[in-house]
Amino acid sequence: xxxxxxxxxxxxxxxxxxxxxxxxxxxxxxxxxxxxxxxxxxxxxxxxxxxxxxxxxxxxxxxxxxxxxxxxxxxxxxxxxxxxxxxxxxxxxxxxxxxxxxxxxxxxxxxxxxxxxxxxxxxxxxxxxxxxxxxxxxxxxxxxxxxxxxxxxxxxxxxxxxxxxxxxxxxxxxxxxxxxxxxxxxxxxxxxxxxxxxxxxxxxxxxxxxxxxxxxxxxxxxxxxxxxxxxxx
Length: 233
What we know:
The chain has five helices and nine strands; from the N terminus they run ββααβαββαββαββ.
């Protein structure tokens, strides 16, 4: 949820978590909670505006990420081409650098694909511990035994992988708790965490994947940690 006009964020989208202030009335479209309005102000026009604002925000974030990631991919490809050209003329010491550059190009291209394409796989029940084995192998994890969420699994893997790398990778900590209809993941950064070389692969990409494709909520309002709310199965 994001307040129209101010941009203040509030979430997750759940009748149990109304915004501060109020009193509020729910705005629903096809039975789905899509916003809140002052009590007594609900109308078809208000519901339609909330739906349009949500679609606009998604489109703006997608366009921003595609523009930024596209620029990064082009830069990486040019650097890789130049290294390959020099290696072809005898600079064999560049082969390791070429390998690293190829991995970097692949990472940025996968990120673009995650943003550009809507999920093909439908949402289903996914065991979060199994996903974290792939997405965050070096994290210190504490999860409830019934940590299962409803999500498209490839998108969940991508989002948690990006969040893990954003938090510094090995040495970061992930704690899970069930809150109502949500699994809340609290992620703390690794000691000595360094900023990402490509900032867009951190908060902007994680926010887009969590908010848009996983129907959850990313909370970055707390110091030195982030919260990810995912719909519990």
